[in-house]
From TrEMBL:
It comes from Cuculus canorus (Common cuckoo). One of its GO terms (molecular function) is microtubule binding. Its EC number is 3.6.5.5. Its main location: other. It catalyses: GTP + H2O = GDP + phosphate + H(+). This is Dynamin-2. GO terms for cellular component: centriole; clathrin-coated pit; clathrin-coated vesicle; microtubule; midbody; neuron projection; phagocytic cup; phagocytic vesicle membrane.
Amino acid sequence: RDFLPRGSGIVTRRPLILQLIFSKTEYAEFLHCKSKKFTDFDEVRQEIEAETDRVTGTNKGISPVPINLRVYSPHVLNLTLIDLPGITKVPVGDQPQDIEYQIKEMILQFISRESSLILAVTPANMDLANSDALKMAKEVDPQGLRTIGVITKLDLMDEGTDARDVLENKLLPLRRGYIGVVNRSQKDIDGKKDIRAALAAERKFFLSHPAYRHMADRMGTPHLQKVLNQQLTNHIRETLPALRSKLQSQLLSLEKEVEEYKNFRPDDPTRKTKALLQMVQQFGVDFEKRIEGSGDQVDTLELSGGARINRIFHERFPFELVKMEFDEKDLRREISYAIKNIHGVRTGLFTPDLAFEAIVKKQVVKLKEPCLKCVDLVIQELINTVRQCTCKLGSYPRLREETERIVTTHIREREGKTKDQILLLIDIELSYINTNHEDFIGFANAQQRNTQANKKRAIPNQVIRRGWLTINNISIMKGGSKEYWFVLTAESLSWYKDEEEKEKKYMLPLDNLKIRDVEKGFMSNKHVFAIFNTEQRNVYKDLRQIELACDSQEDVDSWKASFLRAGVYPEKDQTENEDGAQENTFSMDPQLERQVETIRNLVDSYVGIINKSIRDLMPKTIMHLMINNTKDFIHSELLAYLYSSADQSSLMEESADQAQRRDEMLRMYHALKEALSIIGDISTSTVSTPVPPPDDTWWLQAS
């Protein structure tokens, strides 16, 4: 068949992938116009030319985008040929300046594949040592295992010269040797010379030429066809085992997913019911695993679900409680006013109980805000956990939406009940001040106890926390901020060069230290807090405060909670007194001062008891009323709510993406099965030719 364009200059300007497929009828089809079958091969040529021009233009431009052509015929072997552009040195027409580089890159892209055989075509009327085709073939196939030399235009050589040495593989040896062919001339093509006649003329040329007569049976296009066929057979047999194992592993990986799709009928109500039950059940299991923790599918990148709620309970909430601790000066003034107001016009001889109760109640009421804030934080985490668990329901958008809505609504309903219960706990504390509590210091002890002695300290050398922190405000001269390994104990804060803790940089005692927040820098993504000395002393070298930076606000809160355990508290907001003059003139007589000190100690002791109680009861209340209740709701009632919210068929409507994915997977699965059955039918006992011995490549090294 004569359908490949030919002419002078660069004719092949796009790679042509030609698939020859054995079939009972003869026709051709292009990938870019699949519906059309070509039976007239002149039309095929015209379509190739038109498609080339469509992408590259009419003025000699090139493109690496291939044209795919399939030819079905009873006269072909199953074979894929790729016709590549010839190497152009000088750009013409619309061709870019780097045309040679572009074409070489395009050719290398195809010939580098281990599964391809390379036909290195060289005209006989040019010096073989200058053959670009051979040079490029050697680059990607140095052993010569898949390169076949083809010599064309043998009939156009100068009289008295021949290519005998080349064809006998003596001049520039190739492992698979050279085959000579004689194609039709441009005059023959223009005169529509029949290909059969051209093959006969080629045969006659080799038989009648004195230089080639002795090897005529190894020359010509029919022999080239035979050699290629043989190479293809060898090649298929060599690659079959690897291909089979690759296909089998792909099939195995698809098997599990395809199992659920095999007998898939999208509108089958029983399948929808089963899928709905499985999805809701899986959602409940995932939710419980995220809250309670689980050994399988552990997230190693960030805290999630239960771990974050635990952090709220035991780091964030205690920190919020301490943050609202009373200001010493204000508290003493309030106690003194309370004592005076209770005595009224009389001068009191004894310390009044009522002053203690009034001050305690005022402090207990302040607990409401951090407790409610703790509930809000837990709710946010629960809702995030629900969202993460509904990701698996992505195949059914409506089901995901409804599940999320129903569970979130339930959590919001429980929020009110949980907050009411927590406020009730605080009201219960307010209703009766139990001065007979076993941990309460009592009146006698309060008179003797000094405030400093009342401050509990942990075991001196106990390490509370270790970790990396950045000191943010070291002077610019010394390189600006720097990261160190910090160790916080009950008595000091030390920092080292690294976690080996060999090279200590500094040790800072914790006495008189407090924490304050520092605003985040405009360009910085770090979160910062500062440590300073309440007695206006430098903390480190010439710094009044050291600014410590973390990567997230969570880390800052966690470090602050650790400092609290070590007795380093946050700074109080300094609010102006309403009446500065009164503050300055206000003085206490020694008896009143003693009474204030006594009540101060009693309040400190009792508020400590209540804080301890609230810290213990808060997680329990939230767990019982909200978290455990939500788990029970998901397991026992979610399904009923889903059924009542919408009909099953609309809930289980697949997303378009899921339907497409299923179709693709089934198509892939069947294609793999078919490929494996075809491979199973192939007889590997076909005749094979051994690989020729390695050739002498001295000529390549020399060039």
